[in-house]
Each structure stands twice: as C-alpha cells, then as structure tokens.
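Changelog-adjacent note: as of this version, every example in the card shows the full chain rather than a window. The one below runs 283 residues end to end.
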Amino acid sequence: MKTIKRLSRYCPLLPFLIIVGIYEVVPLAFIVVRGFYSPGTTMLSVENYQAVLSKKVYLTCIRNSMYVSLLSAFAGLAISFLTALSLTKVSPKIQSVGLSLLNITSNFGGVALAFAFIIILGSAGVLVNVGRILNIGFLADFDLYSRDGLIFMYIYFQIPLGTLLLLPAFEAIKVEWKESAALMKASSTTFWLRVGIPVLAPSLLSTFSILFANALTAFNCVYALVSNSFLLLPIKIQSMFVGDVKLQPELGSALSTIMLLILVAVMGACNLVKWMLDRRMAK
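Full-length structure tokens:
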C-alpha cells in the first residue's frame, strides 16, 4: 500500500512525461540511431561521422557556429549583466516598464527580426544610408550579411533573454554587503569584482550556457537573413532534410548529433565549474 501511495504522488507528472517522451526522447533517439546508418541503407556504420569530421564544409559549419555562438553569448552576457544591474537601481515604475520592453523584445525574433535588421542595417538600410550621407565609415561600410553582421544580430536577441534570466539573481546581493564595502572604502568596481560577481557566478554560468544554446540552435532569423550563403550548423542540417538538391537525412542526423554533443559539452563544463565554485564557497 505504501508503494502504491508513493507512486500515486507522481501520477500528475504522467501527461508531462508522455509529451516529453513522444516529442523529445523518441525523436532524439531516432536521430542518434539514424546518424549511424549508411546513406540510403539501414546498415550501421560510422561513415557519416567520418564525413562530418573530415570534410572541410562540415568542419567550417561547426567552426562558424561555435565562433558565433561563443562570441554572442559572451557579449550578450556582459551587456545583460550591465542592463540587469541598471534595472536594480531604478524605481519600481521604471523597472516595470523595462521588464515589459524586455518581454516584448525577447519574443521578437525569427523572420520579423531579420526583416527589421534588413530595413535598418541592410545594404540600403536607414542607418547605412545615414552613414553614407554623413560620411560615417563604420555605418556606411557595415555588411549585415557577413559574419560580423550575424554576430551583431545574435547579440541583439541575446540581451533581453540574458537580462530576464539574470535579474532574479541580483536579489542575492545584499545591501549590507555594499554598505560594509563602502565603510571599508572599497570602490564599486572592487565590490563587484571581489564580492558581487563571485556570488553571481553560478547564475552567470547558467545564463551563459542558455545563451550559447540559444545562439547555436537559432535558425529562422539566420536563414531569412543569409540563407545558404553563410555556413552554419542549423542551416546545413536543414538542407540535408529539405531542399532541391539530393537529401541526406543520415548525414543530417549525424550533424544534429554533433550539435547536441557540443551543447552537452558546453553545458556540462558550465555545470562542472558551478559545482567547483559551490564547493569552494561552502568551505
């Protein structure tokens, strides 16, 4: 009877577990297994992974995705930290307005975001034309459809998400700590470097891993902006399953698995560092 009662506590979780199993676990398992099929057959082999790790086009996709994701995650985290810090220092009314804007911008993405960037910073964009008229070099020569242009757009959609994730973490910073630091004649910079950031480090690492995953798997806005003209993992994976050329679902599954392994590796590294920091602070 006790066992039945214990199991009954988890009954409300069943619908959630069923949905997760159908829409996440089963497709994931299918993709991983399919990546080991030889092209056009059901024979198991590592041919697809050998192709991914040896051909320049796939290595370039991985390298570009890693570079764009890491850089945009770092830059987005830094700007989000400063934005969240600023919001903690304003009145509740202004903070409420700021949170509303962050919620709106965090949900503004995909094709609409790409279209907005094309209007503002495209080849004939508003700011680009202003730069040409006023002879502002970096605006007049800005190339939205290059790697730097993509990184700029990535950083933009990272900031609202990162700020919303970091804001609750700032509640851990106690006013008494700041007052004690001020009494000891420590500057604001010294306080944040020696007290604030170490305390927020676990939250910063968690936010970084989410921003990295958000950038690595971004597809709609990137595809709408550069299509196949810039090699990235999500775009290359999409071309393996849908397109006018020969479809290669087995190779696409292998690329998807590689992308998943990159995500797991980065998130695992962040969690390991968090665990080490927690142990150090516990001592």
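Structural remarks: The chain has a mean pLDDT of 84.
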